[in-house]
Design brief:
The chain contains 15 helices and no strands. The chain is an all-alpha fold. It is globular and about 60 Å long.
Length: about 300
């Protein structure tokens, strides 16, 4: 017994630890980490541009942390509101609120806590303007997109996508404590990038959205028309990325990089319009993520090359 009992006693402790880790993972899933990653990809390079160099490490960490907390809180609140439709779609049926890993009340408290902490952290460690912008983006995402637009109009992701473009404004404000034309154009870049990115995924998931009665464009209109809209928004996006060159006085690194990735993006969008298959749509979706990352990395590298 002296040997066996301690071994038996360790089993419950291990199970408790595993349960706690699964609980933590469930709460982390509420924040939609992959979406947060994309938001942070746009934040840091914008800070480089605003500083015309490398911002302080403390400022970068504080801004990224506050932005991640605010986005995480908004995403968690989004899951609370969308729990009823998430259980109808294969893409979202394993989310924590659907599986019962987290209760709606607990998720809502978690979301509100993240928003409060994000606002206070940004206000105290960065500035009030960046904190206010981050909070406004969360409020827009929850109340305008999730509660109103998502289930009522085919333009849901177009208008609602503005929330995802606010991090560039937060980043600029964090460095300068004001706004300017350069971040406004970057806002337009992310705003116009969102429809081709999300609609391409919606082409693949149109049966899910149809089952949940969400009027995403590929559900409401023909695939030909949806693909045409993706192509047209991609052209508009390209125009704005080029307009950004004189507005922000960008150099060769940005010009060359953007020229290449713009051509590739247009090519993917044009192929989708021509072949109109799920595979072509997913190619657009996957490349759109690479595109946004490369675009903003080019912004940061361009600044470092020219000012250091």
């Amino acid at each position: 017994m002296s040997v066996v009992s301690p071994l038996l006693e360790r089993v419950p402790a291990g199970e408790r630890l595993r349960s706690r880790l699964l609980h933590v993972r469930a709460y982390l899933a509420l924040t939609k980490p992959r979406i947060i990653e994309l938001l942070l990809v746009t934040t840091l390079p914008t800070m480089f541009l605003a500083r015309r160099g490398v911002p302080s490490v403390a400022l970068m960490v504080a801004t990224l942390a506050g932005g991640a907390l605010a986005a995480g809180g908004a995403n968690a609140a989004n899951m609370v509101v969308d729990c009823d439709i998430d259980r109808l779609m294969n893409r979202t049926k394993n989310r924590p609120l659907v599986t019962g890993e987290v209760s709606p009340v607990s998720a809502l408290v978690f979301a509100l806590t993240l928003e409060v902490v994000a606002f206070v952290e940004l206000w105290q460690a960065v500035n009030l303007l960046s904190a206010s912008l981050a909070l406004s983006a969360s409020a827009y995402y929850i109340f305008v997109y999730t509660l109103w637009l998502k289930r009522s109009t085919v333009q849901n992701i177009v208008v609602g996508g503005a929330a995802g473009a606010v991090p560039v404004l937060v980043a600029w404000a964090a460095v300068t404590d004001r706004l300017a034309w350069a971040p406004a154009v970057l806002f337009a870049v992310v705003f116009l990038w969102t429809p081709p990115h999300f609609w391409a995924l919606a082409v693949r998931c149109r049966e899910d959205y149809s089952a949940a009665r969400i009027p995403m464009l590929p559900v409401v209109v023909s695939l030909d028309r949806a693909a045409r809209q993706i192509f047209l928004y991609t052209l508009a996006l390209v125009a704005v990325t080029l307009a950004f060159i004189p507005v922000a006085h960008m150099g060769l690194v940005y010009v060359i990089t953007t020229g290449v990735i713009d051509v590739v993006f247009v090519g993917y969008a044009l192929r989708l319009w021509r072949v109109q298959t799920d595979e072509a749509a997913m190619a657009v979706f996957r490349y759109s993520i690479t595109y946004l990352t490369l675009l903003f990395v080019a912004v940061a590298v361009d600044v470092v090359v020219r000012y250091h």
